[in-house]
Protein backbone atom coordinates (compact mmCIF):
# COMPACT_ATOMS: atom_id res chain seq x y z
CA UNK A 1 0.00 0.00 0.00
CA UNK A 2 1.28 3.45 -0.87
CA UNK A 3 2.30 5.60 2.05
CA UNK A 4 -0.30 8.26 1.18
CA UNK A 5 -3.14 5.72 1.17
CA UNK A 6 -5.98 6.26 3.62
CA UNK A 7 -6.69 2.53 3.98
CA UNK A 8 -7.21 1.13 7.46
CA UNK A 9 -7.45 -2.43 8.79
CA UNK A 10 -10.78 -2.67 10.64
CA UNK A 11 -10.79 -6.41 11.38
CA UNK A 12 -8.25 -9.07 10.53
CA UNK A 13 -8.51 -12.87 10.39
CA UNK A 14 -11.98 -13.18 11.91
CA UNK A 15 -12.99 -16.84 12.15
CA UNK A 16 -15.93 -17.75 9.86
CA UNK A 17 -17.08 -20.20 12.54
CA UNK A 18 -18.08 -17.23 14.72
CA UNK A 19 -18.76 -14.42 12.22
CA UNK A 20 -21.73 -14.54 9.87
CA UNK A 21 -20.46 -13.10 6.58
CA UNK A 22 -23.87 -12.14 5.19
CA UNK A 23 -24.83 -10.27 8.38
CA UNK A 24 -21.44 -8.54 8.42
CA UNK A 25 -21.82 -7.38 4.80
CA UNK A 26 -25.35 -6.15 5.47
CA UNK A 27 -24.17 -4.20 8.51
CA UNK A 28 -21.37 -2.58 6.53
CA UNK A 29 -23.78 -1.73 3.71
CA UNK A 30 -26.23 -0.07 6.09
CA UNK A 31 -23.39 2.05 7.46
CA UNK A 32 -22.40 3.15 3.94
CA UNK A 33 -19.05 1.43 4.36
CA UNK A 34 -16.44 2.03 1.63
CA UNK A 35 -13.67 -0.52 1.44
CA UNK A 36 -12.98 -4.21 0.93
CA UNK A 37 -13.88 -7.44 2.71
CA UNK A 38 -11.34 -10.24 2.17
CA UNK A 39 -12.34 -13.89 2.59
CA UNK A 40 -9.69 -16.63 2.61
CA UNK A 41 -10.61 -20.30 2.50
CA UNK A 42 -8.67 -23.38 1.43
CA UNK A 43 -7.71 -22.99 -2.27
CA UNK A 44 -10.07 -20.03 -2.50
CA UNK A 45 -9.98 -16.25 -1.94
CA UNK A 46 -12.56 -13.56 -2.55
CA UNK A 47 -12.57 -9.78 -2.25
CA UNK A 48 -15.88 -7.94 -1.85
CA UNK A 49 -15.53 -4.35 -3.05
CA UNK A 50 -18.01 -2.07 -1.29
CA UNK A 51 -18.51 1.46 -2.64
CA UNK A 52 -21.44 2.45 -0.44
CA UNK A 53 -23.85 1.97 -3.35
CA UNK A 54 -25.75 -1.06 -4.59
CA UNK A 55 -24.75 -4.72 -5.00
CA UNK A 56 -20.97 -5.00 -4.50
CA UNK A 57 -18.58 -6.55 -6.97
CA UNK A 58 -16.75 -9.70 -5.92
CA UNK A 59 -13.33 -10.79 -7.22
CA UNK A 60 -13.29 -14.55 -6.76
CA UNK A 61 -10.28 -16.83 -7.24
CA UNK A 62 -10.93 -20.56 -7.01
CA UNK A 63 -7.55 -22.24 -7.31
CA UNK A 64 -9.02 -25.76 -7.19
CA UNK A 65 -11.31 -25.03 -10.15
CA UNK A 66 -8.79 -22.75 -11.89
CA UNK A 67 -11.24 -19.86 -12.19
CA UNK A 68 -10.79 -16.11 -11.73
CA UNK A 69 -13.94 -13.99 -11.94
CA UNK A 70 -15.17 -10.50 -11.13
CA UNK A 71 -18.94 -10.13 -10.95
CA UNK A 72 -21.86 -9.28 -8.67
CA UNK A 73 -23.31 -12.80 -9.00
CA UNK A 74 -20.27 -14.20 -7.18
CA UNK A 75 -21.64 -12.79 -3.90
CA UNK A 76 -24.18 -15.62 -3.60
CA UNK A 77 -21.55 -18.27 -4.28
CA UNK A 78 -19.23 -16.71 -1.73
CA UNK A 79 -21.82 -16.65 1.06
CA UNK A 80 -22.78 -20.27 0.42
CA UNK A 81 -19.15 -21.38 0.34
CA UNK A 82 -18.32 -19.63 3.63
CA UNK A 83 -21.19 -21.41 5.33
CA UNK A 84 -19.66 -24.77 4.42
CA UNK A 85 -15.90 -24.13 4.60
CA UNK A 86 -13.85 -22.74 7.50
CA UNK A 87 -11.68 -19.73 6.85
CA UNK A 88 -10.97 -16.13 7.80
CA UNK A 89 -12.48 -12.71 7.09
CA UNK A 90 -10.62 -9.40 7.08
CA UNK A 91 -12.06 -5.91 6.60
CA UNK A 92 -10.10 -3.01 5.07
CA UNK A 93 -11.59 0.48 5.04
CA UNK A 94 -10.79 3.24 2.56
CA UNK A 95 -11.59 4.33 -1.01
CA UNK A 96 -8.41 2.71 -2.34
CA UNK A 97 -9.58 -0.66 -1.04
CA UNK A 98 -12.95 -0.32 -2.81
CA UNK A 99 -11.35 -0.11 -6.26
CA UNK A 100 -12.12 -3.19 -8.37
CA UNK A 101 -10.65 -4.35 -11.68
CA UNK A 102 -12.88 -3.42 -14.61
CA UNK A 103 -13.23 -5.52 -17.75
CA UNK A 104 -12.91 -9.24 -18.29
CA UNK A 105 -9.69 -8.89 -20.27
CA UNK A 106 -7.86 -7.65 -17.20
CA UNK A 107 -9.17 -10.43 -15.00
CA UNK A 108 -7.10 -13.29 -16.37
CA UNK A 109 -3.87 -11.44 -16.94
CA UNK A 110 -3.53 -8.43 -14.71
CA UNK A 111 -5.30 -9.16 -11.43
CA UNK A 112 -2.43 -11.07 -9.86
CA UNK A 113 0.32 -9.06 -11.56
CA UNK A 114 0.50 -5.28 -11.31
CA UNK A 115 -1.63 -3.85 -8.51
CA UNK A 116 -1.42 -0.08 -8.03
CA UNK A 117 -3.37 -0.10 -4.79
CA UNK A 118 -2.12 -2.99 -2.70
CA UNK A 119 -0.74 -6.50 -2.82
CA UNK A 120 -4.10 -7.98 -1.98
CA UNK A 121 -5.69 -8.38 -5.48
CA UNK A 122 -7.18 -4.94 -6.02
CA UNK A 123 -6.60 -2.41 -8.76
CA UNK A 124 -8.02 -0.81 -11.86
CA UNK A 125 -11.03 1.42 -12.13
CA UNK A 126 -13.94 1.20 -9.71
CA UNK A 127 -17.45 0.42 -10.88
CA UNK A 128 -20.19 2.53 -9.30
CA UNK A 129 -23.91 1.94 -9.55
CA UNK A 130 -26.65 4.32 -8.53
CA UNK A 131 -28.91 2.88 -5.81
CA UNK A 132 -31.81 0.88 -7.25
CA UNK A 133 -30.61 1.32 -10.85
CA UNK A 134 -30.46 -1.75 -13.12
CA UNK A 135 -26.94 -2.99 -13.75
CA UNK A 136 -25.37 -4.98 -16.55
CA UNK A 137 -25.76 -8.22 -14.59
CA UNK A 138 -29.48 -7.79 -13.91
CA UNK A 139 -31.86 -9.83 -16.07
CA UNK A 140 -35.61 -9.48 -16.42
CA UNK A 141 -37.01 -12.87 -15.52
CA UNK A 142 -40.36 -14.25 -14.49
CA UNK A 143 -41.05 -17.57 -12.80
CA UNK A 144 -41.61 -20.56 -15.06
CA UNK A 145 -40.86 -24.24 -15.05
CA UNK A 146 -37.54 -23.45 -16.71
CA UNK A 147 -36.54 -20.77 -14.21
CA UNK A 148 -33.11 -20.97 -12.69
CA UNK A 149 -33.71 -20.65 -8.98
CA UNK A 150 -31.27 -18.88 -6.65
CA UNK A 151 -29.11 -21.07 -4.39
CA UNK A 152 -31.05 -22.66 -1.55
CA UNK A 153 -29.93 -22.83 2.04
CA UNK A 154 -31.16 -25.34 4.57
CA UNK A 155 -33.54 -23.70 7.00
CA UNK A 156 -35.04 -24.69 10.29
CA UNK A 157 -38.44 -26.46 10.15
CA UNK A 158 -39.85 -23.68 12.33
CA UNK A 159 -39.20 -20.94 9.77
CA UNK A 160 -42.13 -19.58 7.76
CA UNK A 161 -42.03 -19.62 3.96
CA UNK A 162 -41.79 -15.83 3.87
CA UNK A 163 -38.67 -15.90 5.97
CA UNK A 164 -36.84 -18.93 4.60
CA UNK A 165 -35.18 -17.22 1.65
CA UNK A 166 -31.40 -17.47 1.11
CA UNK A 167 -29.14 -15.76 3.62
CA UNK A 168 -31.96 -14.58 5.96
CA UNK A 169 -30.94 -16.85 8.84
CA UNK A 170 -28.02 -14.97 10.40
CA UNK A 171 -27.34 -16.25 13.93
CA UNK A 172 -27.10 -13.26 16.26
CA UNK A 173 -25.73 -15.31 19.15
CA UNK A 174 -22.61 -16.29 17.20
CA UNK A 175 -21.46 -12.97 15.86
CA UNK A 176 -21.24 -9.36 16.89
CA UNK A 177 -22.04 -7.67 13.60
CA UNK A 178 -25.66 -8.73 13.06
CA UNK A 179 -28.04 -5.78 12.76
CA UNK A 180 -31.08 -5.68 15.04
CA UNK A 181 -34.23 -5.43 12.97
CA UNK A 182 -37.85 -4.82 13.82
CA UNK A 183 -39.85 -7.82 12.69
CA UNK A 184 -42.84 -7.05 10.51
CA UNK A 185 -46.30 -7.86 11.75
CA UNK A 186 -47.77 -9.22 8.54
CA UNK A 187 -51.34 -8.61 7.37
CA UNK A 188 -53.27 -11.56 5.93
CA UNK A 189 -51.20 -13.30 3.27
CA UNK A 190 -52.38 -12.73 -0.32
CA UNK A 191 -53.67 -15.64 -2.37
CA UNK A 192 -50.78 -17.92 -3.31
CA UNK A 193 -52.38 -19.66 -6.30
CA UNK A 194 -49.98 -20.61 -9.06
CA UNK A 195 -49.53 -17.88 -11.66
CA UNK A 196 -48.36 -18.45 -15.18
CA UNK A 197 -45.54 -16.47 -16.75
CA UNK A 198 -47.79 -13.90 -18.40
CA UNK A 199 -49.80 -13.26 -15.24
CA UNK A 200 -46.68 -12.94 -13.06
CA UNK A 201 -45.25 -10.48 -15.56
CA UNK A 202 -48.42 -8.41 -15.21
CA UNK A 203 -48.06 -8.45 -11.41
CA UNK A 204 -44.47 -7.22 -11.65
CA UNK A 205 -45.49 -4.47 -14.10
CA UNK A 206 -48.35 -3.36 -11.85
CA UNK A 207 -46.07 -3.32 -8.80
CA UNK A 208 -43.72 -0.97 -10.61
CA UNK A 209 -46.61 1.35 -11.36
CA UNK A 210 -47.68 1.30 -7.70
CA UNK A 211 -44.17 2.27 -6.62
CA UNK A 212 -44.21 5.00 -9.27
CA UNK A 213 -47.50 6.32 -7.88
CA UNK A 214 -46.04 6.60 -4.38
CA UNK A 215 -42.87 8.12 -5.82
CA UNK A 216 -44.85 10.88 -7.59
CA UNK A 217 -46.83 11.66 -4.46
CA UNK A 218 -43.86 11.80 -2.09
CA UNK A 219 -41.63 13.65 -4.54
CA UNK A 220 -44.42 16.18 -4.97
CA UNK A 221 -44.37 16.63 -1.19
CA UNK A 222 -40.64 17.44 -1.35
CA UNK A 223 -39.36 14.08 -0.10
CA UNK A 224 -36.23 12.25 -1.30
CA UNK A 225 -37.94 9.13 -2.60
CA UNK A 226 -34.76 7.23 -3.55
CA UNK A 227 -33.27 7.64 -0.06
CA UNK A 228 -36.55 6.72 1.63
CA UNK A 229 -37.01 3.62 -0.51
CA UNK A 230 -33.48 2.39 0.08
CA UNK A 231 -33.84 2.90 3.84
CA UNK A 232 -37.17 1.04 3.91
CA UNK A 233 -35.69 -1.84 1.92
CA UNK A 234 -32.76 -2.17 4.32
CA UNK A 235 -35.09 -2.15 7.32
CA UNK A 236 -37.11 -5.01 5.85
CA UNK A 237 -34.20 -7.01 4.42
CA UNK A 238 -34.13 -9.54 7.26
CA UNK A 239 -37.75 -10.48 6.61
CA UNK A 240 -37.81 -10.08 2.83
CA UNK A 241 -34.41 -10.86 1.38
CA UNK A 242 -35.38 -9.73 -2.13
CA UNK A 243 -35.65 -6.16 -0.82
CA UNK A 244 -32.04 -6.17 0.35
CA UNK A 245 -30.13 -4.02 -2.19
CA UNK A 246 -27.18 -6.38 -1.79
CA UNK A 247 -29.20 -9.39 -2.98
CA UNK A 248 -29.51 -7.99 -6.50
CA UNK A 249 -32.95 -9.63 -6.85
CA UNK A 250 -35.01 -6.44 -7.08
CA UNK A 251 -34.33 -3.14 -8.81
CA UNK A 252 -36.61 -0.19 -9.48
CA UNK A 253 -36.38 2.84 -11.75
CA UNK A 254 -38.98 5.05 -13.44
CA UNK A 255 -42.03 2.97 -12.49
CA UNK A 256 -40.40 -0.24 -13.75
CA UNK A 257 -39.44 -3.19 -11.54
CA UNK A 258 -36.77 -5.66 -12.63
CA UNK A 259 -36.53 -9.02 -10.88
CA UNK A 260 -33.71 -11.54 -11.00
CA UNK A 261 -34.66 -14.99 -9.81
CA UNK A 262 -37.92 -16.38 -8.46
CA UNK A 263 -39.78 -14.64 -5.63
CA UNK A 264 -42.96 -16.10 -4.05
CA UNK A 265 -46.03 -13.94 -4.70
CA UNK A 266 -47.08 -13.72 -1.02
CA UNK A 267 -43.83 -12.33 0.43
CA UNK A 268 -43.40 -10.11 -2.65
CA UNK A 269 -46.76 -8.38 -2.17
CA UNK A 270 -46.49 -8.07 1.61
CA UNK A 271 -42.86 -6.94 1.69
CA UNK A 272 -43.21 -4.32 -1.03
CA UNK A 273 -46.48 -3.01 0.42
CA UNK A 274 -44.85 -2.66 3.84
CA UNK A 275 -41.93 -0.74 2.34
CA UNK A 276 -44.31 1.69 0.62
CA UNK A 277 -46.38 2.10 3.80
CA UNK A 278 -43.31 2.97 5.85
CA UNK A 279 -42.23 5.63 3.37
CA UNK A 280 -45.65 7.26 3.37
CA UNK A 281 -45.75 7.23 7.18
CA UNK A 282 -42.38 9.00 7.36
CA UNK A 283 -43.49 11.81 5.04
CA UNK A 284 -47.12 12.16 6.16
CA UNK A 285 -46.47 13.96 9.45
CA UNK A 286 -47.58 17.17 11.09
CA UNK A 287 -49.88 19.62 9.35
CA UNK A 288 -49.33 18.09 5.93
CA UNK A 289 -50.16 14.53 6.93
CA UNK A 290 -53.68 14.55 5.50
CA UNK A 291 -52.64 16.22 2.25
CA UNK A 292 -49.82 13.74 1.68
CA UNK A 293 -52.01 10.70 2.33
CA UNK A 294 -54.75 12.01 0.05
CA UNK A 295 -52.21 12.64 -2.66
CA UNK A 296 -50.84 9.11 -2.30
CA UNK A 297 -54.39 7.71 -2.39
CA UNK A 298 -55.16 9.66 -5.56
CA UNK A 299 -52.03 8.39 -7.31
CA UNK A 300 -52.72 4.80 -6.24
CA UNK A 301 -56.30 5.09 -7.46
CA UNK A 302 -55.08 6.11 -10.91
CA UNK A 303 -53.12 2.85 -11.11
CA UNK A 304 -56.07 0.85 -9.76
CA UNK A 305 -58.36 2.08 -12.53
CA UNK A 306 -56.02 0.53 -15.11
CA UNK A 307 -54.82 -2.57 -13.23
CA UNK A 308 -57.67 -3.45 -10.88
CA UNK A 309 -58.01 -7.09 -11.96
CA UNK A 310 -54.35 -8.06 -11.57
CA UNK A 311 -54.04 -6.01 -8.37
CA UNK A 312 -56.98 -7.91 -6.88
CA UNK A 313 -55.66 -11.30 -8.02
CA UNK A 314 -52.18 -10.68 -6.63
CA UNK A 315 -53.32 -9.24 -3.30
CA UNK A 316 -52.00 -5.73 -3.86
CA UNK A 317 -55.52 -4.28 -4.00
CA UNK A 318 -56.16 -5.23 -0.36
CA UNK A 319 -52.97 -3.40 0.67
CA UNK A 320 -53.66 0.00 -0.92
CA UNK A 321 -55.59 1.57 1.98
CA UNK A 322 -52.85 0.44 4.33
CA UNK A 323 -50.13 1.94 2.12
CA UNK A 324 -51.86 5.33 1.85
CA UNK A 325 -53.13 5.39 5.42
CA UNK A 326 -56.54 6.45 4.10
CA UNK A 327 -59.29 5.15 1.83
CA UNK A 328 -58.14 4.63 -1.75
CA UNK A 329 -61.16 2.92 -3.31
Structure explained in plain terms:
There is one protein chain. The protein has 329 residues and is an alpha+beta fold. The protein is 34% helix and 15% strand. The chain contains eight helices and eight strands, in the order βαββββαβαααββααα. The chain has helices at 21-30, 74-84, 104-109, 197-220, 225-236, 265-283, 289-314, 320-324; strands at residues 8-15, 34-41, 44-51, 57-62, 67-71, 87-93, 250-253, 256-259. A six-stranded antiparallel sheet has the order 1-6-2-3-4-5. Strands 7-8 form a two-stranded antiparallel sheet. Strand 2 and strand 3 (44-51) form a beta hairpin. Helix 4 (197-220) runs parallel beside helix 6 (265-283) and helix 4 (197-220) runs antiparallel to helix 7. The radius of gyration is 21 Å and the shape is elongated. The model is unreliable at 102-192 (pLDDT under 50).
For the biggest sheet, the summary is: 6 strands, antiparallel
Q: What ranges have pLDDT less than 50 throughout 5 or more consecutive residues?
A: 102-192
The proportion of strand residues reads 15-25%
Question: Mean pLDDT across all residues, rounded?
Answer: 74
Order of the strands making up the biggest sheet: 1-6-2-3-4-5
Number of helices: 8
Q: From the alpha-carbon coordinates, what is the Rg to the nearest angstrom?
A: 21 Å
Number of strands: 8
Helical fraction equals 25-40%
Q: Per the principal axes of the C-alpha atoms, what is the gross shape?
A: elongated
Amino acid sequence: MKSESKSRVVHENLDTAFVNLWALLRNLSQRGFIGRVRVELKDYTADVFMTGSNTPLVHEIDRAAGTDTLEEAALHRLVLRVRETPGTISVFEGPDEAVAVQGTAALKTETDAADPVSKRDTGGTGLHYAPDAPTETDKVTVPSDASVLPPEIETSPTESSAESQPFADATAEEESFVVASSRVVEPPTPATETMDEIEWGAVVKASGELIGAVERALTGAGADFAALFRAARLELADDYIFLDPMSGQFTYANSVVTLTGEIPIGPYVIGLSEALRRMVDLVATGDRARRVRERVALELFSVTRKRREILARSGFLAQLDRIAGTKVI
